[in-house]
């Protein structure tokens, strides 16, 4: 999986939900993709109808991994802007700190052992 693979998915028309976030972090996508391929269950994405409120990285990573994620109905701010997936920018910067990554990894291990 690389940035080109992600861009191909974003431009393919396969992703049916609507993005409300214009940028994604490739390192986060890559980490989530690897976790999904190992069978780690991740939190549902939060949606309003077909608009993603929270979970853009999970949603795209699941698309790359060929996995369906659950959804939870949520609220969305009136200022939220919809973006076509072909407008979404993939950044090479990692938005998570080392401490955040360790926290997510320990939580994911705990969640998968308690399931």
Distance between the termini: 27 Å
Mean pLDDT: 92
Instruction: List the total number of helices.
Output: 4
Instruction: Give the helices and strands as they follow along the chain.
Output: HEHEEHEEH
> Would you identify the regions where 5 or more consecutive residues have pLDDT less than 50?
none
Cα radius of gyration in angstroms: 14 Å
* Lateral strand order in the biggest sheet: 3-2-4
The helix fraction, in percent, is 40-55%
- Taken as a percent bin, the fraction of beta residues is 5-15%
Identify the overall geometry.
Answer: globular
Structural class: alpha/beta
> Largest beta sheet, briefly?
3 strands, mixed
Total beta-strand segments: 5
Write the layout of secondary structure elements.
Elements: H1 3-12, E1 23-25, H2 26-37, E2 45-48, E3 51-54, H3 56-65, E4 71-73, E5 89-91, H4 98-114
Helix pairs in contact: 2-3
Written account of the structure:
A hairpin with a 2-residue loop joins strand 2 and strand 3. The chain has 115 residues and is an alpha/beta fold. A 3-stranded mixed sheet has the order 3-2-4. The protein has a two-stranded parallel ribbon with strand order 1-5. The protein has helices spanning 3-12, 26-37, 56-65, 98-114; strands spanning 23-25, 45-48, 51-54, 71-73, 89-91.
Task: Provide keyphrases for this structure.
single chain; 4 helices; 5 strands; alpha/beta; 115 residues
Short description:
By secondary structure, the chain is of the alpha/beta class. Helix content is 43%, strand content 15%. A hairpin with a 2-residue loop joins strand 2 and strand 3.
């Amino acid at each position: 999986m690389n940035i080109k693979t992600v861009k191909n998915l974003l431009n393919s028309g396969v992703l049916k939900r609507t993005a409300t976030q214009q940028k994604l972090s490739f390192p986060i996508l890559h980490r989530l993709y690897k976790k999904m391929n190992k069978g780690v269950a991740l939190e549902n994405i939060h949606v309003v109808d077909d608009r993603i409120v929270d979970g853009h990285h999970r949603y795209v990573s699941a698309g790359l991994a060929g996995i369906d994620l659950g959804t939870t109905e949520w609220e969305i701010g009136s200022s939220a802007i919809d973006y076509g997936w072909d407008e979404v920018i993939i950044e090479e910067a990692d938005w998570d700190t080392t401490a955040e990554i360790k926290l997510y990894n320990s939580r994911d291990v705990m969640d998968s052992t308690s399931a």
